[in-house]
Design goal:
mainly alpha
Length: about 70
């Protein structure tokens, strides 16, 4: 699983580099919709990860909040 995550991250970084290079060469107009869609996917994934962390913290009885005594 960890290897798959590392590979996915490497592939993502390669895609970002490629798209950024294409934007520099051709301008962003042709790629704006694609970039917007990718950014939406990133935001959605960040929300899922944050929700999972919160749910897991509640299950384990831990929290990022300090305890008030």
């Amino acid at each position: 699983m960890k290897q798959a995550c590392l590979q996915a991250e490497a592939d993502y970084r390669s895609m970002v580099e490629l798209v950024n290079a294409l934007v520099l060469i051709n301008g962003d107009a042709a790629y704006a919709t694609f970039i917007d869609h990718v950014n939406v996917l990133i935001d959605r994934q960040k929300t899922v990860i944050k929700t999972r962390k919160t749910v897991n913290a509640k299950k384990n009885g831990s929290s990022d909040r300090p305890e008030i005594e």
